[in-house]
Design goal:
81% of the residues lie in helices and 0% in strands. It has one domain. It has 3 helices and no strands. Helix 1 runs antiparallel to helix 2. The longest helix has 20 residues. By secondary structure, the protein is mainly alpha-helical. The protein is flat and about 35 Å long. The protein starts with a helix and ends with a helix. This is DUF2304 domain-containing protein.
Amino acid sequence: MAISISVVLLLLILAVVFLRNGALKISHALVCVLLGFYLASTSMAPTILSGLTATADIVGSLKP
């Protein structure tokens, strides 16, 4: 568990640096994808999923 959390933190830091740099390349996108896979295997996955579902429901219910 400690190893996967440290990998998640490392990939999160790399993704933030790449996005702030403004030059998201293929290698950067690969790091972001790996971050997603590692986050999906952590205990934070249900919280992230419920947050994204709630946000999608709010956006879907908006009428222009």
